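Sequence only, no structure available. Ideas?
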Amino acid sequence: MSDPDFPLFQENSIDFHVEAIDFQLESEKALKDWILQVIRAENGQLHFIHYVFCSDEYLHQINVEYLQHDTYTDIITFPYREDLIESDIFISIDRVRENAIQFSVPFTTELHRVIIHGVLHLLGFGDKTPEEKSVMRAKEDHYVSLLPPSH
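Reply:
I predicted one. C-alpha cells follow.
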C-alpha cells in the first residue's frame, strides 16, 4: 500500500541533471513515462529518482569517495530506502559511449539500458551471480524494447 505522503507515479518524481560533461538528454518526458511504466510493471513504489549524467572522472571520484572502489564504472545507484524508491543514480556518459562502441549498439540504446539497469536494481534485481545477471539482462532487453528507438 502506498504512503499518502509519497504520491505514486508523479512525473516530478524523476529528474535529470548533468555534471562535469557536455550532454543533453533527448525526450525527457518520454523517458520519464517509460521509467514509470517499468516501475509499474514491476509493482514498485516511487518517491523520487534523481539521475545525474556525468563524466568518467566525476563518477570515478564518487566511486572512490563513497564506495572505496578505485575503478571506472558506467553507473552507481544509491538507494535510500528499501520499501520505496528513493535514489540518486549517477551515469557516466563517457563509459556509456565506450560501451556502445564495444557492444556495437547505438549510444541511445546503451544509455537506455543503463538507465533502466539502475531502476531494476532499485526494484530488487541483482547482478552478482550468473543467474541474476541473466535475469537482469533479460529484463533490460525487454524494457529497452518498449521504448521507441527515436528516444
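The chain has one domain: 11-145.
Hope that gets you unstuck.
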